[in-house]
Specification:
- Keywords: ATP-binding, Nucleotide-binding.
- One of its GO terms (molecular function) is ATP hydrolysis activity.
- Pfam families: ABC_tran (PF00005).
- InterPro entries: ABC_transporter-like_ATP-bd, FeS-cluster_ATPase_SufC, P-loop_NTPase.
- 38% of the residues lie in helices and 28% in strands.
- The protein has 253 residues and is of the alpha/beta class.
- The protein has a domain of 173 residues: Rossmann fold (3-Layer(aba) Sandwich).
- The strands form three sheets. A six-stranded mixed beta sheet has the order 6-9-10-3-11-12, sandwiched between helices.
- The two termini are 34 Å apart.
Length: 253
Amino acid sequence: MTPLLEIEDLHAEIEGGRKILDGLSLTVNPGEVHAIMGPNGAGKSTLSYVLSGKPGYVITGGSIRLAGVELSELTPDARAALGLFLAFQYPLEIPGVSTMAFLHAAVNAQKKKRGEQEMTSPELLKRVREIGKSLDITAEMLRRPLNVGFSGGEKKRNETLQMLLLEPKLCVLDETDSGLDIDALKVVSAGVNALRAPERSMVVITHYQRLLDYIVPDVVHVLAAGRIVHTGGKELALELEATGYAQFQNEAA
């Protein structure tokens, strides 16, 4: 099987020279859901930023390939068009831009980049309404400026709507459970699970096992000191919840 995501000996630092990732390797096959857990400061969110091409994060060694294409020299929009989606821990607010206008721009920007026919406003609205029903996305939310004044749950549901609409090859979820109550967590998880497919993979970054009760992973990794130090099945998340990360931090030292 050809991996969808292949990271080999990845080294990265923040501009200014502080090393964050230190020889991280990870292989994710099509259809798999991988969870990445680890202590604060281990490099979990940095991994998501490096994958998406966020400015200020510099790759100093190794490689990242998505569907066989090297990502390191691609711009963030080119990575998105290739099929990468990053769900932020703290989704951005964009005053003055309605949620619907943002969705229209995002969808058609990707289609244009891939040389596909763009969606008309009526086509997009119909699709958004279909998806939005399952996420409790109201017409009023679609008219509001993107994420402005939204609760934590509304922001995450809105981001899940984006993900369902764009249908990426690789979904990277950076602490999607952050700030969610149990009801919002169930709604968001159901939306994420609706995207599970043989051709699509997910990397779920989280501190807590709670999220993995709802988005059940195939593989769990422990990230410490900038690299993967332990890998196991979904039962590893329960072990980490009970024992913490101390033993794995010692391994990474």
